[in-house]
Amino acid sequence: MALQPVPVMTFEDWLEAERAEPEERTEYVAGEVFAMAGGSEAHNLIVVNIARELSLALKRRPCRVYPSDMKVHIASAEAGVYPDIMVICGERHFHDNRRDLVTNPGLIVEVLSDSTEAYDRGLKFANYREIESLHTYLLISQDRITVDLYQRQADNSWNLESFAHLEDVIPLPGIDASLAMAEVYDKVELP
Fold first, then answer.
1. Which of 43, 45, 101, 169 is the most exposed place for a label (fewest CB within 10 A)?
2. What is the three-class DSSP state of 129?
3. Confidence of residue 24 (pLDDT cuts 50, 70, 90)
4. How far apart are CA 157 and CA 76, in angstroms?
């Protein structure tokens, strides 16, 4: 049996469809469209906790914290994705005048699930590394106290530091802030 060709959608066609049906979120990578599932209670609590803490830390600064409804365009990877949280300090760059698709996040946070962990650590992170403005990538486990902090170095390599204790504080020098692990996992019931 011969394989059937997979129809390839252009980025602009995906974006038009995404804007027409905002309730049905998908991600776009090199012609392929992937449906996004809803998050668990733990996932949602962690996202709210981090967004709250970052918003408070950056309140009087020229930085914006965006939750998972804001898309990021990675032109070099031909991708359009929804990070769980992203931060942009300074001028925001948008794909077009709709202002719902940014191109220059400095910090991106993904909360891991069993179904997304390999993608978030693999292809998605590879695509994120194509964003010149990105300096910090945080991967947060929702079923154990574990945070992996990746920071871009001057030579364009990425340094990994892991945190696994509620007493830990995650330094975020790229935005001159930090996150307390106890706040990240506030009210989250771990298995």
1. 169
2. coil
3. confident
4. 18
Q: Residue 7's pLDDT is what?
A: 54
Alpha-carbon gap, residue 161 to 147, rounded angstroms: 8
The string over 28-50, giving b where at least 16 C-beta atoms fall within 10 Å of a residue's C-beta and e elsewhere, is bbeeebeeeeebeebbbbbbebb
Name residue, tokens 């030579």. Answer: 155
> Is the pLDDT at 64 greater than 60, yes or no?
yes
Q: What is the per-residue pLDDT across 99-127, written as a single tens digit (0 to 9) for each? A: 999 999 999 999 999 888 999 999 999 99
Give the Cα separation of 99 and 96 in Å (integer): 6
> CA–CA separation, 129 vs 123, rounded Å?
10
